[in-house]
Amino acid sequence: MPYAISRYIGCSAALVIGLVPALAFAQQQAAAAPRLAQAPAPAVTADQTAEDGTAVVIVTGVTQTTSKKNATFSINTLSSEEIARLAPMSTADLLGNLPGIYAEGSTAGEAGNNITVRGLPVAGGFRYSPQLIDGLPAFEEPDTPFMNNDVLVRDDLMTETVEAVKGGPGGILYSNGLGATVNHITRTGGKELAGGYKIEYADYGFWRHDAFVSGPINANLTGAIGGFYRRSDGIRDTGYTADRGGQLRGNLVFTSDDRRTTARIDGHYLNDRTAFYQNLPISVPRISGSGTPSNPTVLNQDTIEPLGIDFAHGSVASPYNRRFTMLGEYGSREIDQADGLHPNFRMLTAKVSHEFNSGLRLSAGLRHTGGTNGFNSVFTGNDTATAANFLNARYQNDVISPAHGAALGCNLGNAKLIGYFNVPASGACSAFANISRKDFVKNYAKATGVAGHWRNDGSAVAPGAYMNFLIPFIARMDARSDILDLQAQKSFMAAGKHDLTFGVYGSRYRFDLNLQNSLLVGESANRGRLADLTAVDAAGRQVGPSLTYDGAILPGWGGHDSRFRGEGKAVYLLDHWETLQKRLRIDAGVRWQHLDANVVRRNRDTATDLTPANVVVGSSQDTTADNEIFFPAQARPLNKKFHALGWSIGANYAISKPLAVYALASSAFRMPGVGDLIDLASAGTQVVGGQPVEIDAVERIRQYEGGMRYQARGVGASVAVFYNKFSPRSAVNVYRDIESTQCGALGGVIQINSCPEVAQLYKRGVENFGAEVELSYRPGAIEGLELKGSFLAQQPKVHGADYTITQEDKTAQGVITGYHYVQVSEDGRRPRRLAKFMANFTPSYDLRAATGVPLTIYGQYQYTGSRFSEASDTNVTLLPSYHVINLGAQYEVSSRLTAQVHVANVGNDLTFTEGDPLFADLLSPDGTRNRGVARPLFGRTIRASLTYRF
């Protein structure tokens, strides 16, 4: 599409112009800044010194600033310099550089990705990894439907560091901190004026501007403001502007003269659009049968072929299916896929703390997040076929079958019956009574097939073209979250120093979701087209109504309209104890949390005929696509209360100045998510045998961990060994008790429906043993060389998924003779999409010492082991392992200007991060292979940037 350069320049300039007043004001104050009285910087102790001589401190998971080496729990950090070198394209892409976190290659795009932590199940988005901004959640629920946390959290030049806490006090100090709690720490004003501007370009029509200004305003007040604006054609070829928008954020920090009182105000505005990329059609060599746990279907990357859409940069989205029409209770509306994921949010935060003469310190943090989000994306069905086969299937399934059913039921007003078949003027019901399908078609059919025409130019669909169903997911959300965190801290001496923190946490949040689906008829090709379908006679002339409406065979079906209201309360206590001359540090804490949830869900399951009154049903001016539009139906309410208790105790002992060991035991929990409760409202109360079955919806994890950290000049090492036992919310299995005396029999055969039902609660939990290792080395013999790496080795296994089903006993002729029990167990199987081994190696070399050239070259090698596509059924497909190599260089043009080139996926390695299980009966269009769908990595991309700092 034409590139709107004027609007792009205008938006980019607006970001820079917005920073000018702050820059000018800060420059006016800069001259006065040196004359201001400054408090002395806190002393850096020896055990806080890293290999480069600077203090490595953390603020997440602790109540007092602590060095990373001395933490009693697992903590990983990324500095702003490391973030710049990694050049991540998304939040998930960034977090995938932390050991223990699998980010699925960031294959959904810049937002809406999935991550998982230490073998926890891939249950969607950021479910077990809440994202904080400066210690408070961006939104109370990290995994709302169609609005993952990474939709709200975007790093830019205003991000100073990112810290990730896994387990331990993360589950005490923060809400939903079951897996990894990630804190994105924002830059604030310092003693001196500072600022930066970065312009970035990528070879897929990507332009981005980042900027910030920070510094002192007066003796007690500092400020910072910055953000980004980005525009992109899309890392996959959508044929239109896929990504556009950005964010602006800033803060003011007040510190009293005596440093006992601080106050901070933050404002954050996000308005962005990003494309959401989904699975693509694939084909693989013919398989003889579907996989099993003992004999999975193993995919070989070299034998996987695309079905019409390029793996590297192709997309289901295209300019020809960008816009389409949906029908519903609102009438009609045009959908624009270019809106993509569209968050429009404002976040306001206020923090204040005061230390009294007694040593008591009170602090409060208040955050309001509110706005709207849109989700617009088209998913591909697993139906790719040649047009000849696809259209024949439409004739059989969408013309003959419904018309034949209407004829047998004497539904003589059915549009497909009267439009595609000759209905006798009299005695039709008698003529159609018990008529076979074959005779019905032979004696009454007017239509002999279905034809397709491409909507963009009206040309006929060629028989060999690839066709497929496309499934739009269109969601509109209104969300609000209000969070208050109050803390009281007091230090006292008792066999060492204790820093005791008591906290009260409260949240009120709401989430309104309107979700609707559609079913489009599309082309499986790069820049695929939509097609309109008509029934035709032997001469190719249209018979009766169209089968589609603007390319949709179902313009409005599925989904729901839901309203969620939640109110949470929590209290927590954490004691940080330092003893034995500060060589031993112990953190012990407990958290109790309560949730009061109210949900109203209305499923779209009421079929409504929207045929206009002025249209003759069954005529060529009619369309059968509007005969079944699903409206929201009866409201299904849910009002429930939940509560849980968690605890953590960890210790760190400094054996020597560079070496420390630590151990941790914790029990954490996650309150039911918004999506869980909306689904529970749909299911309603499970009643078996007249008695309600109570489902435990709180998820829990028990974690044990031990490790060591070694930090000396030039060498750093961190080793952690862990065991997790995860318990999800209950699942209900209902089976018939065939041994009950209540069972009736007929002809000696049990009538199974007369047997009483038995409700069996089970939990598809996960047990995981694993080890994480982080290493860094700067050899003294080669100045400028730095080697960094990490790896995760784990053995996640399903546990607790044992349940009973009843199975029929049949003769060879299919006659049922009885029933027997089958005990099903998934225990011992690896959960879906989890690798046993992952590694990340990032070497860099600064050539300045050896050549005098201020050039740093760097690389990255990421390896992810094979994963199962599914583990909860008897069909198992093993996705291949893969690796990605990234290379780059940073050149210091001057002390303030840096140029960078970054090449991602240098080898253009193509593989899949997720995919549906393969089934033997799903064949490729030519019938020689099997087909499926999977989401591939992005192909090679090149990015270049210039960064100016002052």
Please tell me what the overall shape is: globular
Which range does the strand content fall in?
over 45%
> Main beta sheet, described?
22 strands, antiparallel, barrel
Topology, number of strands: 56
Give helix % range: 10-25%
Family: Belongs to the TonB-dependent receptor family.
Subcellular location: Cell outer membrane
Signal peptide: 1-26
Organism: Massilia niabensis
Structural write-up:
It is a single chain. With 950 residues, the chain is mainly beta. It is 10% helix and 50% strand. The chain is built from 10 helices and 56 strands. The strands form 13 sheets. It has a 22-stranded antiparallel β-barrel. A 5-stranded mixed sheet has the order 3-10-11-6-7. β12 and β13 (206-216) form a beta hairpin. The chain is globular and about 100 Å long.
Comma- or semicolon-separated keywords:
22-stranded antiparallel β-barrel; about 950 residues
Summarize the structure.
The chain is mainly beta and 950 residues long.
Q: In terms of topology, how is this protein built?
A:
Elements: H1 5-30, E1 57-58, E2 66-67, E3 74-79, H2 80-86, H3 91-95, E4 101-102, E5 116-117, E6 131-133, E7 136-137, E8 143-144, E9 147-148, E10 159-166, H4 170-173, E11 180-186, E12 194-202, E13 206-216, E14 221-232, E15 243-255, E16 261-273, E17 280-285, E18 297-298, E19 305-306, E20 323-328, E21 331-336, E22 342-355, E23 361-380, E24 385-386, H5 387-408, H6 415-420, H7 428-432, H8 437-444, E25 449-454, E26 466-493, E27 497-523, E28 531-536, E29 542-546, E30 552-579, E31 584-608, E32 629-632, E33 636-654, E34 659-670, H9 674-683, E35 686-688, E36 691-693, E37 699-712, E38 715-727, E39 731-736, E40 744-746, E41 749-751, E42 757-762, E43 765-777, E44 785-794, E45 797-799, E46 802-810, E47 816-825, E48 837-846, H10 848-851, E49 855-864, E50 867-868, E51 877-879, E52 882-892, E53 897-904, E54 912-915, E55 929-936, E56 941-949
Parallel strand pairs: 6-11, 18-51
Antiparallel strand pairs: 1-2, 3-10, 4-5, 6-7, 8-9, 10-11, 12-13, 12-56, 13-14, 14-15, 15-16, 16-22, 17-19, 17-55, 20-21, 22-23, 23-26, 24-26, 25-28, 26-27, 27-30, 28-29, 30-31, 31-32, 31-33, 33-34, 34-37, 35-36, 37-38, 38-43, 39-42, 40-41, 43-44, 43-45, 44-48, 46-47, 48-49, 49-52, 50-51, 52-53, ...
